[in-house]
Design goal:
Layout lengths: L10 E4 L5 H11 L7 H9 L3 E7 L7 E8 L6 E9 L8 H15 L4 E7 L3 H9 L3 E10 L4 E9 L9
Parallel strand pairs: 4-5
Antiparallel strand pairs: 1-2, 2-3, 3-4, 5-7, 6-7
Amino acid sequence: MTEEPPTTVWQLRRATVDDVDAIMAIERSTFATDAWSERSMRSEVRSEHTYYLVAFDPEHPERIDAYAGLLAPRGAAEGDIQTIAVAEPARRRGLGRTLMLALVGEARKRGAREVFLEVRADNPGAQTLYGELGFEDIGVRPHYYQPDDVDAIVMRLVVPRPETTTA
């Protein structure tokens, strides 16, 4: 019988520059050959046009288990999921989905009608998740991820309008 991973309820909060060291630790372990630079990440987290989240276990708020970022200037019709990564021990427990839904919600608040992303062609797990969330393949960027020489699949989500119901 397979043992179930412990249940964790993560909290999300807006990332700050103080989180960049923890974000970079996950970035480097997840994207070993093509990690962003610390300088680029700092710039992203600081920008008024981006929205970066970190996820943490409330019992261990000092430990960041995941992060994700959105580029969506207020009033722009389009947004772009810049990056998302979940630390190995926290994977396959719904945290990536939670982060993605939060970013799509923020894109909607900022006025985006479409959200785009690139995903490695050799990452079927992420492709499946994005497809389940409504993203559709719209193209390929050959040789996008270097130095691995891996294509990027470009995906698009038409941002769903919020649904309201009467009680």
